[in-house]
């Protein structure tokens, strides 16, 4: 068995939720007649989702959503799966990246699955002739949801998209535990640097940021949180972290991870104040949070080791991981989120794809919440796989919770 197929086999054994969904999909073929266009991180867990969709009767066309996150052996293995066509390649140019997106769209798809919204953006700009055939889509990540909501607010999103990222089963597991563990482990394996005792700076205290802060604190780091939202800043303070501006954090931080989804979080002003040997990385979707362009324009440096570019600024070394791209997948040994976490997220994607296929034509353009029953179904399947039982409301309790006239 080739390496890509071996990776998929390893992931599959730890993805019981998708396994249960696949059994039903294989029997009922609920996605028959559906062409699914996907732009996701092409690695082993994603491949198991793709297999599941194909087992449900879909024709699946997939490419990457980040130039450095594709695992080429997995992409090769996907092309051996019946009903699947994969165009992703690692370390591709920007031109090749969008050429692959166009190949996915050339098949005239009916459903989209995006991670970052590049596929949907392409449809609404360069490939508008295909919009009429799209029933709807699903979006995987925070950055993509931000872009979609901005688009919808301007009335320019022309088909319905489920905000998979915003549902509790995604935020509380994928974003907190997935990003927290995988981003931290990517920093550790790439740098071989000790976490304990270091000043560890987390930019942004959303779901991803709080997961990362928690994991770093657990390893003994002195965690600093930077924020723009006073409520989240106060929450970080009450959770026991040091809260300050990025300007202040730049002077004392040893390791930095950005998780904001916004641009220019660490730039020229901070670069000039960083300590010698500071390590910078990004856990947001796009490579805009660290101003790599400024560093390149003032470059006096070299590739320190695999996945680390070192820049000399004011005589001090600044070490940037994965070119400022998504650190948990873009570093050479990055494996992305833990398998069990992605089992939940991709269970959501599989069921949301089925929902969009059946209900999308009745919905107008816009961003929609994942139906609560889908979120609950994924949680229930996971509990079943763990042999964990929970209580159920009695009829008396249901009556009480739905009444307004039962008081003291």
From TrEMBL:
Limits of the S-adenosyl-L-homocysteine hydrolase NAD binding domain: 175-334
Cofactor requirements of the protein: NAD(+)
Enzyme class: hydrolase
Binding sites annotated in the UniProt record for NAD(+): 141-143, 206-211, 227, 283-285, 328, 337
Gene Ontology terms for molecular function: adenosylhomocysteinase activity
PROSITE patterns: ADOHCYASE_1, ADOHCYASE_2
Cofactor binding, note field: Binds 1 NAD(+) per subunit.
Zinc recorded as keyword: no
The keyword Flavoprotein is annotated on this UniProt entry: no
Pfam families recorded: AdoHcyase, AdoHcyase_NAD
Cellular component GO terms, alphabetical: cytosol
UniProt-listed InterPro entries: Adenosylhomocyst_ase-like_sf, Adenosylhomocysteinase-like, Ado_hCys_hydrolase_NAD-bd, NAD(P)-bd_dom_sf, S-Ado-L-homoCys_hydrolase_CS
One Gene Ontology term from the biological process aspect of the record: S-adenosylmethionine cycle
Family of this protein: Belongs to the adenosylhomocysteinase family.
Record PANTHER family: ADENOSYLHOMOCYSTEINASE
Protein name (record): Adenosylhomocysteinase
